[in-house]
Amino acid sequence: MPLLLLLTAACSTGESNKDPIFSAKFQNEKRIDEEAVTKRQLRDAEFLVDAASRKMQLLEISQIAQRKAASADTRFVAQNLAATTAPLLRELQTLAQQKKLVLPTGLGEEQGKQVGELTALNGAAFDQKFVDLLGSITNEDAEAYDDMSEEAYDGDIRALTARQLPILKDQHTAGETLQDKLKP
């Protein structure tokens, strides 16, 4: 019930107009502070927020790439990326719900800007920007998961990171392979 109250309070104070990632982190931090939970648990909550936001961005760019990519290889990687990322996001959402943590409902401001820049491109420039974004997001994701697989306070989060990390590494490798194929 406190989660519902937090969501209601956040919406009524204009919190919903802010960056979704900031909003989720703010709500989680407020709940954790009120419950006198440790800083390590706050780090776990921030990890879940950031991991979910990266998954949402990967889904967004992969859906755009399936429609706009110039290369069949890029469309293929985008299709596989969407197929592997959606279940990872659902698993994150389920765990966050069990832990009574709030996840972002949309892309953050910087992520939205990156997606907008990608969408504005066509042809080979689009494919190159897609693979660059894919590489940076999957690299950041894999590093965060690798850290949290050992350092998360919560055992369920450690287990989740251990399950998802091999998939993230495969996604990153697919991006690197695509990068090599797109080189002139």
Automatic annotation (TrEMBL):
Q: What is this protein called?
A: DUF4142 domain-containing protein
Q: Which InterPro entries does the record match to this protein?
A: DUF4142, Ferritin-like
- Recorded source organism is Hymenobacter glacieicola
Every DUF4142 domain range: 44-177
